[in-house]
Amino acid sequence: MESASGVLLFIFVCGPLPLVWGLKLLLSRGSSSLARFAGAVLALGGGAVTGLVAWLIHDLSTGGFTKGRVLRLQGRARVARRAIGKGWADDTVPELSGLSAWQRTVLGEAWLYSAGMEHASVPAFSKLSLKLSALGAPSALLEDCHLAALDEVRHARRCFAMARAYSGMPWTAGMLPELAQAASQPLPAGTENDWARLVRGSLLDGCLSEGLASRVAEEGARQATDPVVRETLSVIAEDEGRHAELGWDVIDFALERGGGSAREALRQALTELASREAPAMPPIPGVDEAFLARNGLLPQAELGRLMRLCVESTRARAEALLPPSSPRDVEPRLSFQ
């Protein structure tokens, strides 16, 4: 409890408090020149710390950690608002000794970002289940969708617990109003476009993204020194690998039932693979790559390497599902070199 309070105290004392106090001194009519100078220094320092924390939140929220299946609503990836409360955390606590307040802030934000993505994967699998039901999928696919959603519930609980422990804040999942708006839209009617969307989403968000999430978590677990972090990432790696296989099962179903439109959609989705970028881990002041790796966060070069491996393996497996094309139909591959 004392260490958690230390993180909050660090952020408050070094950020908003001197910012407000400094502005008060700077703008007060009765302040002396020395007081105004001190106010300017405090305001600048407090503003810098406040801005740094805000920058960290923004960059990690647009960067990459373990992701899994993305919840796409109206063409955009969505996550729930961050909130304070209960309901989305287990009782896991990582090793906190030896970490500075800033290091804990960084790790807390990283795990909170991951928690939001894992939480969003729960309704993403529910959406997939509804689509498969509308298209007449067999029961095994629907069962696997719901089992995957339960996996994501466990992942989200664990990631929220890690975020809460590092940051000292009782984070939980908030509202996701875009999901309610999407729920009012009509279900697919079994058109050719539905098969195409199913194939594209399964290849890019299922086979590729979840395959990458599995590789990233596996490598993060290998490099992490905290047993709790290692165990958490190992479980996520195994589950996300299974979810990637579900993506391939969905593609098999679509190719069997969707005919030519599904095959053409798979060919088109293959052309998008090379343009997919590795999740970004921005440089963070005050922590180096070795520290991040010890805590399960991979450096950008390693993320890029794993992305290239995943793209090539996904491409090879998808191409094997398609009938041979005539030479003029074969598009040149883009190189990562």
Give an overview in words:
The chain has 337 residues and is an all-alpha fold. The protein has one domain: Orthogonal Bundle (Ribonucleotide Reductase, subunit A). The protein contains 10 helices and 4 strands. The protein has a two-stranded antiparallel ribbon. A two-stranded antiparallel ribbon has the order 3-4. α7 runs antiparallel to α8. The radius of gyration is 23 Å and the shape is elongated. The N terminus and C terminus are likely disordered. This is Ferritin-like domain-containing protein. Keywords: Membrane, Transmembrane, Transmembrane helix.
How would you sum up this structure in a few lines?
The chain has 337 residues and is mainly alpha-helical.
CATH topology assignment: Ribonucleotide Reductase, subunit A
* Structural class category: mainly alpha
Report the span from N to C terminus: 49 Å
Share of helical residues: 55-70%
Q: Please give the largest β-sheet.
A: 2 strands, antiparallel
Low-confidence stretches: 1-17, 61-66, 326-337
Work out the strand percent.
under 5%
Number of helices: 10
CATH secondary-structure class = Mainly Alpha
Number of strands: 4
Keywords: Membrane, Transmembrane, Transmembrane helix
Transmembrane segments: 6-27, 34-57
Protein name: Ferritin-like domain-containing protein
Organism: Myxococcus stipitatus (strain DSM 14675 / JCM 12634 / Mx s8)
